[in-house]
Write a structure and sequence with these properties.
Chains A, B, C, D: This is 14185_t:CDS:1. The structure is a homotetramer. By secondary structure, the first copy, chain A, is α+β, with helices and mostly antiparallel strands. In chain A, 27% of the residues lie in helices and 15% in strands. Chain A contains five helices and eight strands. The first copy, chain A, has helices at 31-44, 115-125, 136-144, 190-200, 221-243; strands at residues 54-59, 62-65, 81-84, 129-133, 149-152, 176-181, 206-209, 213-218. Chain A has an eight-stranded mixed β-sheet, sandwiched between helices. The longest helix of chain A is centred in the last third of the chain and has 23 residues, at 221-243. Residues 1-13 of chain A have low confidence and may be disordered. Chains A and B meet through helix 5 of A and helix 3 of B.
Chain lengths: 255, 255, 255, 255
């Protein structure tokens, strides 16, 4: 796992590969090409404006992650971080730079603050991609569902979501439940409650963060993306329904 | 009709053409080129996010259909299925693979689950294109019109819709009525009630599916698309009107 | 004025120029290039979906008009009609084909049904461009302002609108008034009431058509387009304000 | 500072450089290339429709400003004005053409009416970019917060905004306060109250103008843009929250 670097020290500068080899490919489906393209699409959906949100893709034994605090619609492949997988997340109190990297951008950037959250999806769900959005539809859902869960049923779009985000797709007869965790001042500090929520809700395909956004994952980047679209559609529709006085808990019965 | 294949058996692998010949053309108006381009446009209208929805085009004795469960904004012509027309839809209890194909993608894909619904529009209305959307405007219309019909009148955009979807265009004086059928767990199972609704409402240009979306068709792909646009506009506007307390049943009178 | 044609007869086929000469130019600002490009932009604003709406541009002694009933985001320069200006509009009861043309598309298309309305803006306001949209914001404005006028004041965007659509720009202190006429079954039949409204409201930059849309014009295509944008913004904002209980009649006073 | 011109007189025509040298560059990050590209993006966000709004970028000792009254999505680098920085703004009663320019477009254009407002951000905050939008979300925020401040707290997106627009980023625990000033008939006349508001609110990252829009700035164009996105997101979300009866003043507490 440490073939291209030695354990990076607090100085964070010794021996990390900053060449573009791991992020250069003519294949449009290479994660270093996909992340910029997908983030651009997310920007135009209003999911990652103002540098927030993004996507991480896992490919064999590598994880590709975008930088923190950059315009997500203008990422260049050379900005992408590559980390070996698996590796243990640093303890909460530690510094992010105690992570192990296979490759870092040569310009001074920090990996996304969502890294420990993406990692939770890889570790607990065996996901290969995880998306974080600041979609206003997700935020409004957390405000109009003040408890610890957002629930809907009886909507066709539920069929596009997978049990636990990675198993078989749900049916029209199933109730979709997404746990809602409370926001924390530091994104990293969401890790503990997100892990707890994922364990308490093993069937959940996502975790909503109140006043913040949502994390969605899948067995492939395509699946993570289409599930994120279905969930965002359902967050938006459920808010409209609630505001129009339409029951969001209506349950269909087997034909 | 069976020139390029023998009747496909339950194994579904014998003798089906998987070459790209039937879906390769330099003509941008070839159905195998139109379907990807139109679906991309529908994606940006919010009609087919999360792999849902799509369009099928009939051209002489062939029907072109997109695969099920793929990102509709990223369809490649080589993903398109070609079926001979006419052919009887398999009975409801049968498997989809009992259909006859002229061409299938070489990669393992299944034809759209909307196939029997598209077929209903071809058979009952002699349509040459049929569009299915998951537009939230259509879904909201089915929730705010809880009965078996959505109705509006007195709106200019009605003039863009055709009687029965395929005959002459309606006038500003006409009331537009679209039947609403109840959703079913399996898309295929909508066929029976959709056919019944189309027979009960011979003048209807579309069928709404409650909590799900809408099917719209036309004598050409251009007409199906522009009618889908007019109807979606009217679903959206009628929801806004109802929420603003504006009468959606106001009837104009002849000048 | 009749250099390239003889008076066209009821048969409408004799001697009309159908060559592409008058609609072929490498200049992106040639009206035959501008109309397709602008209509594409209008489509993505939701102004001309479902074939409705469009723009006509007048250039010296020629008027360029798009066809009726086509997808407005896919117009080709060769689809454009060219008419000599000035010419009298045919009397209301007459057929549209009694107009004089300098050039018609070779494929069987009819000039936009908005032609007599565009002409009103050219004749009464000496406009050089006229835009017609089916924007839902315009329609909602006509539904929430049930009288014969839509009025707003105290909004910065008013400064982007011209007195009468063609004179000097309005100020922040001015009240913006747009007359609303009732819709008619045939678009052509709007001409009489639109002309009356334009005469009754010489300062109005546009005419709203209830349950239908709006006509906006300007001394140039740039001005018609930016005024249409300002007005659409104001229709949308005024509807939001009214629905939020905010006074739309608030009047600023001189510094 | 006056190397390429002599002090321009009331005639405003003597010796001003109108060559394209200062606005021609192959570097996409040159301000004369950035301004057109960014304004195009702002247009599609609904921030600068109808010629309103824009961005000014300061680069070393030069300030780049777009013209007034042009379609902001169609600016050409040759339309950009270049002014030396620093220079004193002309007194309020004076004419705009008493400013000093390094370069003017050869076609008759006037620099943006926002110039004295952009200048305030450069002078008072040492900003290097300033954005002005007519976003309806900003306007609605000024209408639903009728006092002299718009305030929100407890929303993740606050973390994308900087103290004073140029210092360190805010935290999730901080309350975001933006002063609201009253609109004036002439944009230039906003300068006095905007300067006062910036002095009274040294921590504010923006100034809202009631019934008009917002001014946002940053230490770089990237920062001004992402802060403008965060603020616009928060204006929109806060309006939705207020209309849904959700408390916009909820304060999170430390861990």
């Amino acid at each position: 796992m440490n073939t291209t670097e030695t354990k990076n020290e607090a100085t964070n500068t010794t021996s990390i590969d900053t060449s573009d080899e791991l992020v250069t490919s003519a294949d449009p489906h290479h994660p270093a090409n996909l992340i910029p393209e997908l983030c651009k699409g997310f920007y135009h959906l209003g999911w990652v404006t103002g540098t927030g949100g993004g996507i991480s893709i896992r490919d064999d034994e590598k994880v590709y992650i975008a930088p923190s605090g950059v315009q997500k619609e203008k990422i260049h492949p050379s900005h992408i971080f590559v980390l070996p997988y698996p590796q243990e997340e640093p303890p909460l109190a530690s510094k992010a730079h105690e992570r192990t990297f296979l490759r870092k951008p040569v310009i001074p950037l920090k990996e996304s603050a969502c890294t420990p959250l993406f990692w939770a999806a890889f570790d607990l769900r065996n996901a290969y991609a995880c998306i974080h959005t600041h979609s206003q539809h997700a935020v409004m859902a957390t405000l109009l569902w003040p408890g610890k869960e957002w629930r809907v049923s009886g909507l066709e779009m539920i069929k596009g979501v997978r049990w636990g985000g990675v198993r078989k797709t749900m049916t029209y007869l199933d109730e979709l439940v997404v746990p809602i965790i409370e926001n924390t001042p530091e994104e990293e500090d969401l890790r503990h409650t997100m892990v707890e929520a994922m364990k308490e809700y093993p069937d959940a395909a996502a975790v909503l963060v109140r006043r913040h956004g949502v994390y969605v994952w899948g067995p492939t980047w395509e699946s993570a993306k289409t599930q994120a679209e279905c969930l965002d559609y359902l967050f938006e529709l459920s808010v409209k329904m609630k505001q129009a006085g339409v029951d969001t808990d209506w349950r269909p019965t087997q034909g």
